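Go through the following before class.
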Amino acid sequence: MDPKQLEKYTSAITLSDMEIFVFPELIYSLVLANIMSPIIWQWRQLDCFKKLQGKGSYKKLMRLKQFIIDQYEFNLDLETWGLTSRQKELKRFADFISPDVITQSNALFGYEGDKYYFDVDIRKHFGLDKYDSDIIPYWKTETVEAMDAFPLKPGYTKKAGECVSLAALYAAAAFVVCGIPLEDIYMILTPLHSQNFIDIDDGVLTNNRRLITKTMWFNGSAISNKAQRALCNENVTIVAHRSGYIHCMFEDATMNKKSYQHFASHLGSYLSADLTLRVFANFLRANRDRQKFFQARCDCHGRAQFIKAEVLFHYEHSSNFRIADQTYDKLLGEVSDEDFVAYELPGRIRCDELEEFMRKSKIDLRKPHSKTGLRKYFEPVIPDAGRLVDELADFVHIEPKLPSQDKNFLSTEPIEISVEHGREQIIDFLHSTRRSNTTAELAFYAYRDMQSCDWAPFVKAAVQRNPVSLQIAESMSTEQVYQWLQKMKTFSIYDGKRLAQPDEVANYNTGDGLEKAFLLANVMHQRNPEQDMKITIDNNEVILNQDSGYRFASGKALRKQIDIPAHSEAYSS
């Protein structure tokens, strides 16, 4: 491989957020790697999913949500995969994208994100303030195998992953387990977050472990407010789809233009709601300081009674019932008699009268005259009525900051796999398209299929971007590192002829002998970069440097000879 090609292919092995930003096809390659994994296909045989056979995709998706919540943690320990430096990474990618572009769009290179992150200081928020300002985490994205191995790591009892890992997991599982076509799954990456838009019913957004329906998006809850942060405040850097990707900074887009327009339209519909009393109540739920200007009216034995909005929301907080929906009367039944008064409260707007005004005026806050009309309605009671109307408009109509459609849309071959296909059919198909589809080709590197991939990217990653194993071995002699590896558990987190990287072995304290040999090679290469190394793989025996005595037993049944020359990237096998 030429140096640029090698950089892209080795990035498919390590999958850091930075690498995905520079090579946007990688995020979908990870989805395909997860789709090829036997782990997600095994989920289909679990009772919780088997009993949903024949049910609709939406019902299966809701069950998948609970399964992921139960099984996985959201992991934001940025030191999980070790540390690097800004300057090192900027230099590495200088031939692909300018440092100025990276600092405008990447959270660890200068981008401050929305006001929340700016206020708390993003480095302090992520626990990086204890390091020099040049130090940043690798922030790698995990395969499903690496996510499932987290219980082997000290301090973890559940499987885990960061937001990009969870988004890739959801996309693959939605296809494999829920039968949702890839055509209906769109990945959305912002500088600080990653999620998916699944185009079924009114739309569903994944958000870390959770799913957010359109109804939930507008319910004003704390969970929904957090889920909204990325799309409300950040620029979308990448949208990825089976047809390709579109990137905010690149002129060329490989995603089908009609698919992108469809996505933009349907996401826009998902992020927009008609202004009803129920939606207005949701707005008040999310904006407690506005509740003091409103009151609710109800009838009791034919007599009008009134209650302060904030008092009613206080009851709702500890209730299963909600304001302005079908359970509203049950909520009123929980309110103490002494919290009602028999007279209209002065200085407050009656919500029943507001509902009548909105209905008659056909309020649409995307239209200036509707905003003016509602402002005038509020002004006799609310001092900053114009600001409240603007806040309400932002609540019901969110405009996502998507990459421009003014791109050079290239004609590319989409990933044509069906929910009707089995796992082996899908793997065979992806194999058949590797020469014509870079995303499919890179998927096998993310999948770590060492039987069909060039070894050079794997070897380069193993001896250049695995700092955790170096840190753990720092106080050991080379012989002690070898003894540590020999005492370690001997199973690989990857099945068949697939291989873990050294830091996966170090973090999970287990590995096949071949994987352990690469960890030792990483340590030796860092300690003595002048030394040439050779790994000889002969089925069940692995030798690191013939005269060293470093021998390992392997169950990977591979035959290779790996040369790791000093001060060179000309790895060969």
Summary: The chain has three domains: 3-272+401-446, 277-396, 456-564. Residues 3-272+401-446 form one domain.
